[in-house]
Specification:
Layout lengths: L1 H32 L5 E3 L4 E4 L7 H8 L1 E6 L3 H4 L6 H6 L3 E4 L11 H12 L22 E5 L16 H11 L7 H19 L1
Length: about 200
């Protein structure tokens, strides 16, 4: 059983790697020739989007007041076209990587918690989730760009504070092509139950 699980995990990882560039190119074409946007603003402080190309960085900083980036990508996905921690820091942008294998995985609960804490410190104090390590951080209001490769699945799992149904309904209104599988729904519901609903009860 352990060997079967290892084989499945290796197969998923290899498939994600092999399909990365073809599917990235497909997403570029969809943005060019359909009504899909490369990124969409979800609220005053969060943008949900596809892999931010290096050529887009200054525009995002200046036009969207982007102060931070959360990447759900693995290292190899950031190598050629996007920025890693060092390159974002050179631009004065805070960066959090929550690497999650494309297609087959959703972020674990620890990663979701880290992501929500990270977003929390860029919200106005009155809008922050209480009881997190960043609740009392110095105010630094700005936009957090949350992304994976296409901005449809991995990154769509991360949204502050709402019930899963409310969050997904709102995100679909802003970004209609998001696509959550069963494991993403399960991750959202578990996170909400353990970290949001329990504090409101």
């Amino acid at each position: 059983m352990t060997l079967d699980f290892y084989s499945m995990a290796m197969g998923a990882t290899m498939f994600a790697r092999v399909s990365f560039y073809p599917t990235l190119f497909y997403n570029v074409l969809m943005e060019k020739f359909t009504r899909r946007n490369w990124y969409d603003r979800i609220d005053d402080n969060v943008i949900l989007g596809a892999l931010p190309f290096r050529s887009q960085a200054n525009e995002l900083i200046q036009k969207e007041n982007m102060k931070a980036v959360i990447s759900m990508n693995e290292d190899y996905e950031l190598t050629v076209f996007s920025n890693n921690l060092t390159k974002w820091q050179l631009l004065g942008v805070e960066f959090l990587q929550l690497a999650t294998t494309d297609i087959f995985e959703s972020p674990c609960q620890e990663k979701l918690h880290k992501g929500v804490e990270f977003i929390n410190k860029f919200l106005p104090r009155d809008n922050r989730i209480k009881g997190l390590s960043t609740t009392d951080s110095p105010e630094n209001v700005g936009t957090v760009y949350v992304h994976c490769k296409a901005g449809r699945t991995r990154s769509a799992t991360l949204k502050n504070g709402w019930t899963p149904e409310q969050a997904v309904e709102h995100m679909r209104h802003c970004r209609p092509h998001i696509w959550l599988h069963t494991q993403q729904w399960e991750a959202l519901r578990e996170f909400y139950k353990n970290h949001i609903d329990s504090k409101q009860s």
